[in-house]
## 1
Amino acid sequence: MGTRHVSTFWRHYQIVVCAGTGGVGKTTVAAAIALAAARAGKRTLAMTIDPSRRLAYALGQHTIDNLEHPVAPEALREAGVELQAPLHVLVPDVRRTFDELIERSPLAAARKAQLLNNRIYQHFSSALAGSQEYAAIEKLYQVHQSGHYDLIVLDTPPSQNAVDFLEAPGRVLDFLENETLQWLVKPASATRFPRRTLGVGTAFFWRTLGSMTGGETLRELADFILSFREMYDGFRTRAAQVRSLLRSPQLAFTLVTSPAENQRHAMLHFYDELCAQGIIPRAVMVNRVHPMPPWGVSTTDAITAATRLLEPLDPEVTFQIIEAIKEEWLIAHHDSQALKELEARVHPTELVALPEQRQDVHDLVGLAPLQALFCADRGPTKS
């Protein structure tokens, strides 16, 4: 198979989902893929649900309003990248995404207004486990169905489990089907019930309500659940559609890691989880790889040659330079071995080594050289 140093795997898909733990450069990789795709002529949308919003910032977008915002071509031109198709950025807003679901539902207008103003609902989107992932997947489904884009690149939040993302569509259904919550909508429950009953399997209740107590709160909760029950069939249908999209051949999961041992192990955990779900990741990106020094000789010969060249320098300076050469070789050797181990482990998934950049990538200028690694011609600039 061989480790690659340039990859255009994204050309074969309509959606690329970048997943991984924190600190591996996942957001940067997602932004670079999106930038390369737009430069190659694909109408591209970069989405991020990373709480730090680094992808949006890297692409010059600082607004969170659940809308798709274009990246200014002139800004990219100044960075040396000439776009051949539009590039947009979207940061899904959890609350607004749930609002849109209600607004599109078959509920009567008065019922929708009542639900949107319900205090329980207003806490629901942020308190329910997986709501952030669900909102992102729901928005992903919406924009994919619109047909406005040739490629959507989704940057997921740092996670310890890849299946959290896959299971998000079912969590709203799990909540609606919770037996304890269903008990609340019975007539007897509108006035009084023992607190311990709610504590059984309903941690959400206490996270959401906090200090809100009394009959009014219980009526609001019952009204909230009744309203969502009326939307249940719609949620179930939509969840099935979203699950289908996540397992579609149009979608590619790519896992991002680094040569560091703990991050490689975390990525392989993700890899195994996805495979257990019947999903084979299409690419593994090993970011921040130190390449083997280009001198083409052994380290000993290189140090001998360097010593001769450095003789006019102060001995202490010469010593420091020699130590730096040794350290660079050791790091590069470690990374080379890590790549070999990963290559054997993830076969036949494509393994791509992304070199350590000279400076942190946090803006369009920094993305220019990295996006070139996802272009067939590898050239970061216009001709």
## 2
Amino acid sequence: MKQLLTDIQNRLAAAVQADDSPLLAYVDLDWGQVDFYEGMPPVKFPCALIDVQNATYSNEGQRVQLGDIMVQIRIVDMILSHSSAAAPAAQREKAARVFDLLREIHRLLHGWTGTPARYGRLVRKTLARVRRRDGLHEYTMTFEVVLTDDSARPQRQPVTVEQIDVRGQ
């Protein structure tokens, strides 16, 4: 699971816009950066925060499991400009940039896999608006992915020639 989250974080952090500026100013695992803070949250905007929302597992035998993992990406932006129809077009465009972010994150992650031997392709499942009292503009996008977990499988130790008793003693 760690590899999955790291791969997603790296893919989002490496994404750039047409003008070669970063798509997101901050990409991290979600540890509550925009939830519990005094004044200004410890992020730069726009940001994407990544976490596992839910995981269910099925047994495949020999202590191997397949996990159906729901990964949640929180896309948060601080809107400081007006977006009314009376506002200048450039100002309205900047206020609506979160929708461009949502489209681009979907394009980057839907159908993508970073480590195919460990997990399958990500599939977007949900998109939801989060209403906040602090004025931050937040959406959550959830992706589903199947992950192979063989961490409980016993590791076989190689046998050296010295350990083999060919005489049966």
## 3
Amino acid sequence: MVLAALKGGRVPVELQQEAAEMLAPVRAEARDATAWQGMQAAARADAGVREAMEAVVTQQLALRQQFASGQHSEVVIKCRELDPRESGDETVLLATLASAVVKDGGEWARWSEEIVRRNPQPEVVAWIGQIRRETGM
């Protein structure tokens, strides 16, 4: 209802900016849900799309399991061939942390820079700086 009121101009002008900022996460979630529904429909309609989605999920799960089981070198090796700008948030995070654990400075720089590019908030920059200091990167 609030989204409709905002879109329809029924929210007082002095509250519009504040309301829009507060509703931004709701709008993003709705876009994500719509995109997910579209992907599910495409997978139901096309076996090739379904297989591609299954392959991506399987690969991500394997990366997550390697990280969780302490196989950080394997995570770094797997991620070395990936482009950070084209990788999902979880991959970027796992690659950053794994490269810090194994102290691979080149990979650490690539992946941690991508985290900061995507999340330039001061607390994220400070967190990356803290990891850099603690690991000697």
